[in-house]
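Board notes, transcribed. Complex of a protein with manganese (II) ion.
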Amino acid sequence: MKTYICGHRNPDVDSITSAYALADLRRRTGMADVEAISAGRLPPRAKWVFEHFNLTPPRVKRDVYVRVRHLVDHAVPVIDAAMPMVDALRKLEESGQSSLPVRAADGSFAGMLSPAKLVNFFLSRGDLMIPVGRAPLHQCAQVLNENDPVHDIRLSAVRNTHNHFPVVDEKGKLLGTVVKRAFAEEPPYRIILVDHNETDQGIPGLDEVPVVEVVDHHRIAFATTRDPIRYTADVVGSTCTLVARMYRAAGERPSREIAGVLIAGIASDTLLFQSPTTTDADRSMCSWLEKICGETAESLMQGMMSITSTLQSMTPDQAIASDAKTYNEAGRKFVLAQIEETQMLIFHQHASELVEAMDRKLRAEALDFIGLMVTDPVRGNSELLFRGAEAVRRALPFRKGPHDVLLMPGVLSRKKQLLPEILSAL
Ligand SMILES: [Mn+2]
C-alpha cells in the first residue's frame, strides 16, 4: 500500500526536507511504496536547496481526499455495446456481479446490463445475437465522476438501492465500476506526518487517511488513533534533527545530498542556531551531517537567504499565506503568520497593504484575530502586526513602534515565544 510522507500546510524548508529524507530512510528500512509530498507550493528557499543538490523536490499535492477513482474495482469488467448479448450475459455470469456497465461506441456510459431489466425483452423477442447496445439497459444508476471526493457522495451512494456505480472521467468516458461495499473500505493509502501533528495544520483530507507515523517537534494535539502508531517527538529545533537521529539509530548513513537537505532544514528552522528553540541535539546532528555533506550550515543558510525576500517576491496575500498557522484556543480561532525579512525597511514599506490583506483573511476565514510576525534572523528581532481582538492586542507585553507594529526584541520563535504570550493574553 502507498504511504505518503507530508509536512504541514504552507510548508517551510524543515517540513519539506524532513519529509524527503524520511522517505529515503523508510525505503531503506523496508517500506516499498513511499512518496514524500508537499502540502503546498514549494517556498523559494526549499526550491533553492533541491536545485543546489540536484534533487527532484517532493511533488506538490493539494489534498489527500479519497476520490472515486481510488475505489474503482478493476476486476469488474466493462461490456462494449457492440458485443452480442449472448457473450455479454456469459461475462455477467462469470463476473459474479448483479450488473455490469456498458460502454457506447464513443466511450461514454450507455447504461447497466442488468438481468431484471431484460426479462420483458426476452419474453417478447429474446434474440441473443443482437448487440448489447440495442437491448434495454438500466439507466437510472448514479453515475460518478472519477474526481468526486468520496465524502461528498458516500451517503447518497450507500442509500441508493443499486450496488454498482459506473464511473466516468472528466470527458464523460466510462472507466469502470465502484461496488457499494468499497465505500466502507479503508483508503488505498496511508500517511506519515512530519513537522506537525494537528489535523488543522495538515494537508486537507488528512482526517480521512490513517496516520501510521508522526515525526515532530511541536506541541502534541493529535487525534486518538485506532491502531498503535510510531510517534517520534522531542524538544529540538528542527524535525530534520529527529530524522538525522533516526538514520543514526537505524545504523544508516544518508547520502551527501540528503545530508545537505537535512542541514538546510536544521539551519532554516533554528535560524542558524540563533532561535531559542535550538538545542545541543540540533548542533551535534548538524555537525555529523556536515561531515557527510562537505558543506556547512552557514553556507547553505547563505544560499537560502540569497533568494529574494518574501515581501518583494509575493503579493501581500501570498506573503501572509506562505507560513500561516491556524489555532483554536480558548474558544478563539486565530492565525499567526510568520515571514523572515532581513530588512525591516522593506516590511515597513509594505505594512499598510499587509494590514489590508490581513483584514481580508480575518473576514474570509471568520477569525477572531490574526497576527503577522516579521522576523529578522540576522539581528534576532521580530515585529508584529495584529488585527482583530483589540483586547488581546492590548494584553500583549510588547511596545508599539512605527507603522502600528508591536516591537518584539529578541523574539524569534512563533511557537516558543509568541504563542505563549498570546495564550496568556487570552
Ligand atoms: Mn519544523
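The mean pLDDT is 92. Residues 6 and 193 are 5 Å apart (CA to CA).
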